[in-house]
Design goal:
The protein is of the alpha/beta class. It is built from 13 helices and 14 strands.
């Protein structure tokens, strides 16, 4: 059985992100997972290293850190924190680290992993623009950490073209998009499709003024806003939630929604937000397309190019995209089906294992 050691700044029981999806993918193909979730701070009361078995093939661990990654602006602070984290990881794993284990790293600042795993294959997956998210000194400290992490990894995978260009300064990254959760399901072709779906964690990233304009300008379209809402998002939605063509659902699984009513999915994010503009394929895109839904995206100029995806630059583009998909929903299904078929779990697993085989052939980056 293949063994994978994950490092992440997310907790296992958080809303699923790519790190959870990759772990689930590898488990589904027989992998044994050791998932290190978000470290606790050494100065928290009761903070300690811990490990627990969630399932037979899934172990959840937690280590400790000294300083929040946004605050490690000086090299001395990064060195000091790395010292604490290395000792903490070793304390959890002990001496029995198999060199056959594959390290899957989602942390841009874990350049010290090679010191802990000198004989292991290390795959780093970059799925956020950590430099753009940095709050101090234009992210120069984050860029240094990212560069060192890339240089010490055997393979770098990125989830978008902008992140690929960013990492290319230090290595030769490869694209690794999310995948569909099911095979393509051809939707019933009905003239009653009169709704669009926003299915997401709804927070300040959403351009609520754009959504409000669309609600007003397309009264014959029903807008479903589905997903957990931040407090600020809830306040924004309340401004137009009373409209007759708005349906708000706190949370729901995709297949529990009235899929036969939707003619498109929408991703209406704000413009000129660096970490949003870095997205080429969001985690849920192919899940939505697997149910036959084309996508209207806003604020995402680097989103994937496909005839069933409209990249809107303003409200006019957004509304035109809705109109186009409502009119051409059935004509787009063949191209959607082909895209989904090329992005199944088996495709991603085969690609991932081919990378491991390549490392074995070419040697590790030591």
């Amino acid at each position: 059985m293949d063994h994978y050691i994950f490092f992440s700044k997310s907790n296992w029981h958080e809303a699923p992100r790519l790190r959870h999806q990759v772990a689930g993918l590898l488990r589904s193909f027989g992998g044994n997972i050791h998932f290190f979730q978000k470290p606790s701070f050494v100065w928290w009361p009761g903070a300690r290293e811990e490990i627990s078995r969630i399932d037979g093939d899934l172990l959840i661990g937690r280590t400790r850190q000294l300083i929040h990654h946004q605050l490690r602006v000086f090299s001395f602070l990064r060195w000091l924190n790395a010292l604490v984290e290395k000792r903490s990881i070793r304390a959890v794993l002990g001496e029995g680290i198999s060199k056959n284990s594959v390290v899957v790293n989602f942390n841009y600042d874990y350049y010290f992993l090679r010191e802990i795993f000198p004989d292991n294959r290390i795959v780093t997956i970059i799925n956020d623009d950590f430099v753009a998210q940095s709050r101090f000194f234009s992210g120069r400290h984050a860029k240094k950490s990212l560069g060192k992490t890339c240089a010490s990894s055997d393979v770098i995978l990125t989830v978008s073209y902008p992140l690929m260009r960013q990492a290319s300064e230090w290595c030769s990254p490869e694209l690794f998009f999310p995948w569909a959760d099911v095979e393509y399901r051809e939707p019933a072709l009905s003239s009653n499709r009169n709704a669009v779906l926003l299915w997401a964690h709804i927070d300040e990233r959403v351009d609520f003024e754009l959504v409000r304009q669309a609600v007003v300008m397309r009264p014959s379209v029903i807008f479903y806003l589905v997903g957990p809402q931040s407090i600020s998002a809830r306040n924004e939605i309340e401004k137009f939630a009373s409209a007759e063509n708005v349906v708000v659902v706190p949370s729901a699984k995709l297949d529990d929604l009235p899929l036969d009513r939707f003619f498109a999915a929408i991703i209406p994010y704000k413009k000129n937000v660096a970490d949003i503009e870095a997205v080429t394929m969001s985690n849920k895109s192919l899940q939505l397309m697997a149910r036959g839904l084309p996508i209207v995206a806003h604020g995402m100029p680097n989103f994937y190019d496909h005839r069933a995806i409209v990249k809107a630059n303003d409200a006019g583009d957004f509304l035109a995209g809705l109109d186009y998909f409502r009119e051409n929903f059935s004509d787009l299904q063949a191209s959607i089906g082909n895209l989904v078929s090329d992005n199944q779990p088996q495709n991603r697993f085969s690609f991932f294992r081919s990378l491991i085989s390549r490392i074995d052939r070419e040697g590790k980056n030591v």
